[in-house]
Amino acid sequence: MKAVICTKYGPPEVLQFKEMPKPVPKEDEVCVKNFATAVTGSDVLVRSAGFPFFIELMFRMMIGFTKPRKPIFGLVFAGEVESVGKNVKRFKKGDQVYGFTGSSFGAYAGYLCISEDESKEGCLSIKSAKMSYEEAAAMAYGGCLAPYYLEKGNIQKGQKVLIYGASGALGTTSVQLVKNLGAEVTGICSTKNVELVKSLGADRVIDYKKEDFIGSQERYDFILDAVPHGKIDKRNLKAQCKKVLSPNGKYISIDDGSPKEKAEYLIQLNALFEKGNFKAVIDRIYPLEQIVEAHTYVDTGRKQGNVVITLTQVSQPHPTPHPTPL
C-alpha cells in the first residue's frame, strides 16, 4: 500500500512516500481502506517537534527521541471496512466508518487497522451516509477533541461562552457544538475569518486585530482556548481570559490534559450532521501525493477549519472547500 512516513523531525520535506505492507487486523481489530485523512495541528506539531524545551523531553520519550517510533503519521481517517478480526462484533466488511487513531497514528496510508473498542489508540464509528469521506475526515479531529473540553464546562442553555481561536479545526467545531447546547457564543478570530465564524452560528465575533476583548464589560460562564500550541503566549492568554470570567466561570485550554477519544462523540456528531445542525469546515483538499504542500500550508497558520487529504477516488460527491480569503 502507499503511505507517507516521517523518518526524522523537521520541516514538511521530511515526509516521504513509501510502499508499505498492507496491515492485517488482530482478533479485535478492523482493517479500514482509507479514502480521506486530514493535516491537523497535532500532525504538524509532532512532525516538527515544535514543543517548548520543558516538555520536549517528555514528548521524545513518548513518540521517539531521534525519529518517530511510528513513522506513518495521520490522526484521522474515513473509509470502508476491508476486513475484521474474528472477535469483532460491531463492524462488518463494507461498513463506511470514520475515526481518530490517537497514539497509534497511521492514517496517512491506504489501509490502517484499529481496535473496535475505544482506547488511547483511538476510536471508530459508523459515519453518516449523508457525509462524504472528505467531510467525515474533516470532522473527526475536532469532533473527537472539542467535546472532551466542552464537557468540562458543563455548559447550560442560556450561558455565555467564549471560544478563543474560533476559526481552526477545534474552534469551528466548538462554536457549532456550543450553539447546539443552546448557549450564547462569542468567537475570537482574525479579520479574514470573521465571516466564517459568523456563518457557523456565533452570536458575536471579535476580531482580535481590531478589538481588545479584555476591555469589554461582558462576562463569560465558560471560556475555551482553542488556539494550537505555539501560536500565542498561553500564560498571558490565560491571565487575560480570567479577567472576563463570571464569578463561577471556568477557563479551559486545549493544552490542558490528555483528552480521551470516545466513539460516542462521533455518533453524536452524526446525529447533528443529519439534522443539518453541523457542517464540516474544509479549507483546502489535497491528494496524498501533495502531502508536503499540505503541511507547508498548515504551517503558515492560515488555515480555516480543516485541510483534507484524499487517498482514493470514490463515487461520492465531493464537498466544496470553504475558500481561503486572500
Write the layout of secondary structure elements.
Elements: E1 2-6, E2 15-19, E3 29-39, H1 41-48, H2 53-63, E4 76-84, E5 96-100, E6 111-115, E7 123-126, H3 133-151, E8 160-164, H4 169-180, E9 184-189, H5 194-199, E10 204-207, E11 220-225, H6 234-242, E12 245-253, H7 263-274, E13 282-287, H8 291-299, E14 306-310
Parallel strand pairs: 8-9, 8-11, 9-10, 11-12, 13-14
Antiparallel strand pairs: 1-2, 3-4, 3-6, 3-14, 4-5, 5-7
Helix pairs in contact: 3-4, 3-7
The string of secondary-structure elements, in order, is: EEEHHEEEEHEHEHEEHEHEHE
C-alpha end-to-end distance: 37 Å
Radius of gyration: 19 Å
How many strands in all? 14
Shape: globular
Approximate strand percentage: 25-35%
Q: What is the name of the CATH class of the largest domain?
A: Alpha Beta
CATH topology of the largest domain, what is it called?
Quinone Oxidoreductase, Chain A, domain 1
